[in-house]
Design goal:
Helix content: 10-25%
Structural class: alpha+beta
CATH class of the largest domain: Mainly Beta
Number of helices: 13
Strand content: 25-35%
CATH architecture of the largest domain: Distorted Sandwich
Shape: globular
Length: 743
Amino acid sequence: MINQRNMKKLLLSILLLAAGAGAFAQPRALDTTPPLRLDTKNMTLLLSAREGQALRYVYLGERLSDKDLAGVRYAGALNAEVYPAYGQRTMQGDAVAVTHGDGNMSLELPVREIRTEETPDATLLRVETKDPLYEFYVTIFFKAWKDVDMIETWTELRSGEKKPVTLRRFDSAALPIRVGDVWASHLYGTWANEGRLVQEPLTRGTLKIENKDGVRNSHTSHAEVMFSLDGKPQENSGTVLGAALCYSGNFHLEVITGDSDYHRFLAGISPDNSTLTLSRGESFRTPELAFTLSTEGLSGASRNFHDWARAHRIAHGDKERKILLNSWEGVYFDINEAGMDQMMGDIAAMGGELFVMDDGWFGDKYPRKNDSSSLGDWVVDRNKLPHGIQWLVDAAGRHGIDFGIWIEPEMANTVSELYEKHPDWIINAPDRSVVQGRGGTQVVLDLGNPAVQDYVFRIVDDLMTQYPGIKYIKWDANMNVSSHGSSYLKADRQSELYIRYHQGFAAVCDRIRAKYPDLTIQACASGGGRANYGVLPWFDEFWVSDNTDALQRIYMQWGTSYFFPSIAMASHISAVPNHTVYRVTPLKYRIDVAMSGRLGMELQPKDMTPEEIAQCKQAIAEYKQIRPTVQFGDLYRLVSPYDNRGIASLMYCAKDKSEAVFYWWRIENFYDSHFPRVKMAGLDPDRMYTAYELDKAPGQRPLSFEGKSFSGAFLMANGLEMPGGFSRDLTGYASRVLRLVAE
């Protein structure tokens, strides 16, 4: 029987259990333990790390003064578990779930040990947790950068159990977001329509953003999101929490809204068909989730991402990107020496700095004449290029420019010598017919196999060893994982295929960068399939989309700019009618859009008129003047193309506010349209700025304010009137680019 005293204990236990029934529990007794503190330039994170209890969030917001630090706990702490585990409090939305060797599916993670390491660049916090009943450990990491407003978090899961442990879910992080008028901004799309922006309020239920392509993870959805915490998203005002999962493979982002005061945001590798097994002594490290807080709206959060990316996350983020001509839309597979030499001479004459020979240069037994053969056979087609690659490298040098080349090393065709020698190297389900993609013959190599990793590394290594003059590689990937199966992985490890693929990809990239640290590499994956921070530590830039239409690029590059700086966004001037949508836009319009990213060209120069060549030469010279501001400056998005106001406008400001570049594009062609006058942003209100228009079309009349000076205060309060009407030289696709130089 239960006496009165035991009954009271039982009731108290039930009440405490109910209070802790979710990761976001009801307020507990005041924690008097000093919190762990992490600071960036303008952000503070406080954590409660009491030994024997779960690690918990206390505060995430603007940087706290020492005076306010003492009072935070009295203001109402977050009291949210940092890394909620499934099993004891089995609420929906746990970050980690395991099955122990004895079948037990529960997990608890009380704090065991805390370590803090200070470096000149960052503060690194390690919090080790351990299950009380099992030899299972989770170390939670936080890295707060001192020079930028970004914190990275990830976990390391380690088993000391005698029997294998199955990881059913292994997110990188969970973040609490206070319920209110909260909106999510994220990206969606498809091939030729990547990086499109969607904004929606958070309501009851679950918002799930995911990609399960297997190879390319940013076509249909992106692994980044922004949360506007105080109402409908605004570009340059409001509090915004931004987050980016730094992973190159399948992912999921989830926002779970139940009956508590907090949305629960979880981010990590997709667990769908991807369980992992840890044997004794094995560990697994999750990818980083990078997050930032801005009180200057969406553009402010973007500036935080851009600063962090250039300083810490993109290869050569501190180096200017060169202006290039890529051969793809100019000649497609029709590669030959005379044509390549002609294109190199033409881009050099226009002031370009690099030529990239795209697909179609390789294959011996199976020459690459179209997309149905030869991937895997990375030898020069001597019928097309009788003097080989070195002749092209030397030719580029004679023209005074650098040379680059296209490869697709993760893929093969079934019509190839590689496939004939190593059919076991491809991803395919056992005893199933081979699923083939692009060209009817394309397959994906199994990068989880160390032999395949060695082969992929050798593709780059052989090229660079034989032709050290190559300065740029365009690395493509044009197929998803279509048939789940690996001849390398054991039968009981087949569910690890997706993850082992990207671990192999990372291992190859590590080897390449260790040997060729100065090589410029572009990530292209059917266009914008690899616009993510999982690949950018090894890559200098990415191809935004195979769709080079200027009008559609405004929308795609707008969305992409939410998370990625212009230095990483390849944007090319192409021919008309556009090869994807067949739209005809003026050359000025195409130039003005391309000049807002990393400028390049994607056409056949010999098909251009002398007037067009002269206009591109002028634009390239002008871009060189503004390149430091565009590629390293602060972005301010002013009028969104998604707001249906008939125009789009943004600008870049130099860090020292000594100059700025303003872009204005008309995106609707209707008579009797009336466009807003755009107020500028980011300028020094006390300095005078002289306005100069760039990329003037032939015969275009000067703007009324050409060469005139205005204070930064005036430009930010009033802006300048852009003539956007119909005219013979501009048609309905009017556009303007202004350079503003401080006196």
